[in-house]
Design a protein that fits this description.
- The structure is a single chain.
- By secondary structure, the chain is of the alpha+beta class.
- It has a single domain, classed as BirA Bifunctional Protein, domain 2.
- The chain is built from nine helices and eleven strands.
- It is globular.
C-alpha cells in the first residue's frame, strides 16, 4: 500500500543538517568555479528525446508534449549544455567556461543532484581535475582518481577484431584470452609508472597512452589508478576521461568530449554521493 507521505524509490529528501550541507557544497563549488572565470547557467530540465545519448535511452524518463513530440527529463547535462551554449547563449557572450547546479533524472524515479562544469573549446583536463581537487579538499581526502582513454578501446577493438559490446558489458574473456602481446601489455597497466616505457606499443596506442600520462603528470594528485579497458556509461567521451571514487562510490566524473565538431571538456560532482561520504565520516 502506498501512503501519501511515501517517496518513490530513488527520489531525494534532504532536511536540517543534510539540507544545509547540500546547499553548502553547491555554494562552495560555485564560488571556486566563479573565481576562476566560470559563469553560471541554469539549464532546462526537459529536452528532446531524439537528441539524447543513444546508449542511455533505456534509463531516460520519456514523456510527450501537446504535439505528441517525445521529450525527456534530463539524465545528463553535458551535451545539452554544449549545444545550448554554442547555438543560443554564445550569440550574446563569448564566454567559454560555464557551470550549473541542478538535478538530473533517470528511470524509473531516480534524482541526482550535481554540480557540473563545461569548458568549451578546451581539452585541458588537468585544469578541470585540479579544480575539482580544490573543491574536494575541504570535505574529502580519501578518494581514488581513475583515468581511462576511450580511444584505446576503439583502436584495439578495430585492430584486433575484439567485440566492443563485450567490453561495454564487462565481459573480458575474449580480451584476456586473445594471446595478443599488445593487449596483454595494456591489461597490466595500473599506475603511471607502468607508462615509463611505451616502446612496445604500436604508434596509435602509444599516442593515446601518452595522453593519459600527460594528464596524470599535470594533475596535483598521487592516488591515481589507470583502467585501460573501462567503458563509460556516457559514450560522448572522445579521449581521456576520469572518475573519482571513495569507498567504491563515485563522487565525480568527467572527460574530453566532442560534439558538432567542438572539442570540449567537463566534469560533474555527484552531490548526493558526496553528502553520503561526508556524513558517514562525520566531517
Amino acid at each position: 500500500m502506498i501512503l501519501e507521505h511515501d517517496i518513490p524509490n530513488g527520489s531525494r529528501l534532504y532536511f536540517e543538517d543534510n539540507a544545509l550541507l547540500k546547499r553548502e557544497l553547491e555554494n562552495y563549488a560555485s564560488d571556486i568555479l566563479f573565481k576562476i572565470g566560470f559563469k553560471e547557467i541554469v539549464l532546462p530540465n526537459f529536452s528532446y528525446y531524439q537528441y539524447q545519448c543513444s546508449d542511455s535511452r533505456n534509463k531516460i524518463i520519456k514523456i510527450a508534449d501537446e504535439a505528441n513530440t517525445n521529450l525527456a527529463l534530463k539524465k545528463d547535462s553535458t551535451l545539452d549544455a554544449l549545444r545550448l551554449i554554442s547555438h543560443r547563449v554564445n550569440k550574446n557572450t563569448d564566454n567559454k567556461k560555464w557551470y550549473y547546479a541542478q538535478v538530473e533524472f533517470s528511470y524509473p524515479s531516480y534524482e541526482s543532484y550535481k554540480v557540473g562544469a563545461e569548458f568549451l573549446g578546451s581539452s585541458d583536463l588537468p585544469y578541470l581535475i585540479n579544480t575539482m581537487l580544490d573543491i574536494f579538499s575541504k570535505y574529502n581526502d580519501d578518494y581514488v582518481l581513475q583515468i581511462s582513454n576511450i580511444n584505446i578501446i576503439n583502436i584495439i577493438c578495430s585492430k584486433y577484431d575484439i567485440s566492443i559490446e563485450d567490453i561495454k558489458n564487462k565481459n573480458y574473456n575474449e580480451l584476456f584470452n586473445s594471446n595478443i602481446k599488445e593487449i596483454e601489455l595494456l591489461c597490466n597497466i595500473h599506475t603511471v609508472d607502468d607508462l615509463d616505457d611505451l616502446s612496445a606499443y604500436s604508434e596509435d596506442v602509444r599516442a593515446e597512452l601518452e595522453k593519459i600520462k600527460d594528464t596524470i603528470k599535470n594533475t596535483n594528485y598521487e592516488k591515481v589508478v589507470i583502467e585501460v579497458f573501462y567503458y563509460p556509461e556516457m559514450t560522448y567521451y572522445s579521449s581521456v576521461f576520469f572518475r573519482f571514487f571513495s569507498d567504491n562510490i563515485i563522487l565525480a566524473n568527467g572527460g574530453v568530449y566532442k560534439d558538432d565538431n567542438i572539442i570540449s571538456s567537463g566534469f560533474a560532482i555527484h552531490i548526493d554521493n558526496l553528502i553520503e561520504q561526508i556524513t558517514k565520516k562525520g566531517k
